[in-house]
Amino acid sequence: MGKNYQEERLKRHKADLAEMEVKQRRGELVERREVEQLFVARIMAVKQGLMNLSRALPPQLIHCQEEREMEIIIIRVVRELLEEFSRPLPAAMQSVMT
C-alpha cells in the first residue's frame, strides 16, 4: 500500500462524496430513517391483515360446501394481503432501492 494507492483512494472518496452532494441537492437521496419507517409501516399493515383473518374468513367460509371453495377464498384473501404489501414504493424511494 504505497503512496499512489492512498492518493487514488482519497480521490475516489472525494468523487463519491461530491456525487452524493449532487444527489442530495437534486433530492434524489432519502433518509434511512424514512425508508425504515416505510417498511415498518408495511410490516405492521401485513401483520394487522393476518391478525384480522380470524374474523374476516369465517363469515366467508361458513357456507362453503367443499374444501376447494374454502381454498379459493383463502387464496384470494392472502393474495390481496400480499398485493397490499408489495405495492410500489413512493417515487422518491424507488431510485434508492435500485
Task: Report on the biggest sheet.
Answer: none
Low-confidence stretches are none
Helix content: over 70%
Strand percent estimate:
under 5%
List strands and helices in order, with pairings.
Layout: H1 3-26, H2 32-61, H3 67-85, H4 91-97
Helix pairs in contact: 2-3
Could you explain the architecture of this structure?
The protein has 98 residues and is mainly α. The protein folds into two domains: 1-30; 31-89. Helix content is 82%, strand content 0%. The chain contains four helices and no strands. The chain has helices spanning 3-26, 32-61, 67-85, 91-97. Helix 2 packs antiparallel against helix 3. The longest helix has 30 residues, at 32-61. It is rod-shaped, with a radius of gyration of 24 Å. The two termini are 33 Å apart.
List keywords for this structure.
rod-shaped; single chain; mainly alpha; 2 domains; 4 helices
Describe the structure concisely.
This protein is mostly helical. Helix content is 82%, strand content 0%.
